[in-house]
Write a structure and sequence with these properties.
It is a single chain. This protein is mainly α. It has two domains: 4-63, 434 Repressor (Amino-terminal Domain), CATH 1.10.260.40; 66-104. The chain contains six helices and no strands. The protein has helices spanning 4-14, 19-26, 30-37, 45-54, 59-63, 67-99. The longest helix has 33 residues, at 67-99. It is rod-shaped and about 70 Å long. It starts with a helix and ends in a 5-residue tail after the last helix. The mean pLDDT is 87.
């Protein structure tokens, strides 16, 4: 099983970038990038977002989440939001109907 750090290293090598290049892009030292890759330190969220953008990988790649699971979860969340909006609209329709005595 790959670790957070090994996934960072793999993505960096796939992008054909050195630790120094990644460090400059993120505003940290190459030693910090080495620390990320060896799992000695974890990047803060803002650096992780920049890293994902720089290395052209979804954040889920670094976190070890299967991208298929991520896509399914995202779709389910979108469906939940739509359903929540539909329920709210139905409540509003019911209130309007009650106000206009159309419900009887």
């Amino acid at each position: 099983m790959s670790t957070f750090g090994t996934r960072i290293k793999l993505a960096r090598e796939d992008a054909k970038l050195s630790q120094l290049q990644v460090g400059v892009a993120l505003g940290v030292s190459d030693k910090t990038i080495s620390g990320y890759e060896s799992d000695r330190i974890k990047p803060p969220v803002d650096k992780l977002m920049k890293l994902a953008d720089l290395l052209k990988k979804p954040i889920s790649f670094f976190l070890g989440t299967d991208i298929k699971d991520y896509k399914i979860t995202s779709r389910l969340r979108a469906i939940e939001i739509v359903l929540r909006n539909i329920r709210q609209e139905l409540r509003e329709i019911k209130l309007l109907a009650q106000k206009n005595n159309l419900d009887d």
